[in-house]
Design a protein that fits this description.
The protein is mainly alpha-helical and 114 residues long. The protein is 34% helix and 0% strand. The longest helix has 25 residues.
Length: 114
Amino acid sequence: MPKNITTSDLRKEAQKLIESGKMPHLDQLLGAVSYARQNYAHRIKAAQASGPEPEEGAPTNFGGPVFPNPQHVKPVLDTDIHPETVTPVGAKFSIDNAQPTDTKSFPGPGEVTR
């Protein structure tokens, strides 16, 4: 997308043209503007009616890193993801590796073992 031209940029460019003697006469300039309006008014109105072009990249006030997204993957919060869980059928439960239920063999919180 081309860079937007600011009024200060136009003033600087006009000043350069005036100083170099290449600034066209006002009638010539107004004639060019009138020609453009007559021949391209339908395109200008269509572009204005279609709204702004979609922006690519991060907003200007974004301070984080920006990564390329060539496949245009939309961002999704991890809280929005709902994975499809399948309950296994015929699963067996084993307690072979479970901790012993005798709590006296393990020190509790604040207990000191010697």
